[in-house]
Amino acid sequence: MNSSLALSIVLASAAIGPISASAAQTISHVVVSAIPAIHPGGTVTIAGTSTDSEVIVKVIRPTGSIIFFNIVKVINGAFSDSFVLGTSESVGTYKVVVGQGDTVDMKDLIVTAAPTPPVTDPGPDPDPGPDSDPGPGTTPIGSSNPSTNIVTPANVEVSPDAITSNTVTGPDGKVTTTVTIDNKYLSDAFTQLKDQGLTEGSPVIAIRISDIVANGNTSVSLPASLLLEGMKSVPNAVIKIFSGNESYSLPLQVLDLNTIAQTLGIDISGVILHINIAVMGTDIEKLIQASAGGKGAVSLGHSVDFSVTAEGNGKTVELNNFGTNYVERSITFSQAIDPLTTTGILYNPANQEISFVPTVFVKNTDGTTQATIKRNGNSIYSVVTSSKSFTDIKGHWAKADIELLASKMVVSGTTATNFAPDHNITRAEFAALLVRSLALNSDAAAATFKDVKASDWFAGSIGAAVKAKLVSGYEDGSFKPNAPITREQMTVMIAKAITAAGKTVSSQAESLNIFSDSSKISNWAKVSVSQSVQAGIISGMTDTTFVPLANATRAQAAVMLKRYLQYTQFIN
Question: 200: pLDDT confidence band, cut at 50, 70 and 90?
Fold first, then answer.
């Protein structure tokens, strides 16, 4: 066994902590039965015996990343679980790790290549014609017979015959695939959307690519001039690149293509847009797993880097700021996932840390789970699982919401074991929570208030909040970061965060009539309070009072954030 894989297995085994203190005290053994070899696409069944009431089951790829994770009940001393191995998974030796704490058992899972079916001679070619071999390494995705795009009531899928890919494997084993689209088919797709009447909403032009292997990158090239022309008839068109396990949906309206051309110093006709999807290799997976472990979480592996670049005139620019447009990308995992204890994460290579990113999980009919990750920029994304609670929230009215957001790494405790739910929350603390909820990049330079220093822990968050128009200061140029935030101040920030997420909510003055103290709500806060009430994000301190000037508590902040994240469809 190579040293890197051995380290991955040790880390993965160490990450199997006790599910509960009582469970840890009763574990005496776990035995995993031998697992037959299978081909990609086959069903893996993991069974065995244990004296515990439940065990953690993990399956680790040869690269060291986790392909499967689940907590399985032990019934009458036996356990069993299964999942379908993806058709794009590599051959090799996978490790199955089962148990809790220091009591684990491991077995090898051998994945072998499926046998190649025999080739049947179809007989002589009725029309030999000239050689149409596209050359070494170049593969049309579809058949050789011409066809048209696939039109459905919801979108247009570009014909496989229009898609050509070229794959190169580098000396480091990295697989790079470049994909180009026949311009006529792409142009036709816009026309077909228009002919279908799909000029409103977010009509999709879908482009299917081959599955991407670990440590592999696929780049789809699109001419900017053609996209710009298509947007004249379908301005809200979305380009969706998808494989069996990943997808990226780019609303073209987030791109100012003419300005991009000016930045590159070239006419729009010379600009090529590249949409890139890269599945991470062992090196990045280990760093993500280490960061997750430091936060009491476990990475499920299958981390993906999504990026968009524009190229022309010998220059390349990265397109990574989409304002209030939260672009969707998805990663499909082979197992069922519990949305309450699982979250999408962003990995920052600069500090090698992970953080929350808005993610919604959907269980597919085949037992797999699709994680749809939403953010107004690009990065490396993955999914982690975690279950967090605090000793001082037992029986508290906000316990479930606090645990949910703590498990998703949105809120944290005042200590490792305490949350202090009834303590006041400051203006800086709440601004930081909103910035985290929106997955915004920190920007200390934008925090120009006289009482916020660049060295303050909250400077980056307040700067990000200023850029996103979530906060404003006082007339004297201060922000008062350490002052307790009032309920009406918190509500104003929440209303602005709804706009920052690209969502809208109506304001109806009569919605405030339910509060007998509505006259005490400041004029500058009334619209925001009305919007938040309409959205179901905030309610009164009692059925009839809002108490706008009362200081908000940490528990109230957590509950409002949970409702906000659900209203914006940032979590399930």
Answer: low
C-alpha 178/C-alpha 220 separation (Å) is: 6
Is residue 561 domain-resident?
Answer: yes
Q: Are residues 13 and 67 in the same domain?
A: yes
**Nearest one of 18, 45, 51, 15 to 33, comparing CA atoms:** 45
Q: Is the pLDDT of residue 387 over 60?
A: yes
Q: Considering the domain boundaries, does residue 120 fall inside one?
A: no
Same-domain check for residues 343 and 252: yes
Are both 375 and 439 inside the same structural domain? no
Do residue 199 and residue 164 come from a single domain? yes
Whether the Cβ atoms of residue 347 and residue 379 lie closer than 8 Å to each other: yes
How many structural domains is the chain composed of? 3
Domain around 72: 3-111
Inter-residue contact 273 to 254 (CB < 8 Å): no
Q: Please name every residue paired with 331 in a beta bridge, in sequence order, or none if there are none.
A: 246, 371
Question: Are residues 143 and 168 both part of a single domain?
Answer: yes
CA distance 486 to 460: 22
Interstrand relation of 175-181 and 216-223 (parallel, antiparallel or unpaired): parallel
Same domain, 31 and 84: yes
In-domain check, residue 300: yes
Lookup: tokens for 240: 């969706």
Give the Cα separation of 301 and 299 in Å (integer): 5
Mean per-residue pLDDT, 271-300 = 93
Residue 210 φ/ψ, nearest 5 degrees: -70, 160
Half-sphere exposure of 340 (CA within 13 A, CB side): 7
Type and span of the H or E element at 333: strand 327-333
State how far the Cα of 6 lies from the Cα of 10, in Å rounded to an integer: 6
CB 24 within 8 A of CB 50: no
Q: Are 52 and 191 in a shared domain? A: no
330 near 359, Cβ under 8 Å?
no
The DSSP annotation for 20-80 comes to SHHHHHH---EEEPP---B-TTPEEEEEEEESSSEEEEEEE-TTS-EEEEEEEE-BTTEEE
* Amino acid of residue 311: E
Taking the CA atoms of residue 462, residue 463, residue 469 and residue 474 in that order, the dihedral angle to the nearest 10 degrees is 60
- Predicted TM-score of the model (pTM): 0.74
Q: CA 10: distance to chain centroid?
A: 27
> Domain for residue 555, yes or no?
yes
Amino acid letter for position 524 = W
Q: Supply φ then ψ for residue 485, to 5 degrees.
A: -90, 135
Residue 92: give its domain's CATH number: 2.60.40.1930
Write out the H or E segment, with its range, that includes residue 3.
helix 3-14
| Average pLDDT value for residue range 86-109 | 83
Nearest CA to 288 among 277, 273, 307, 302?
302
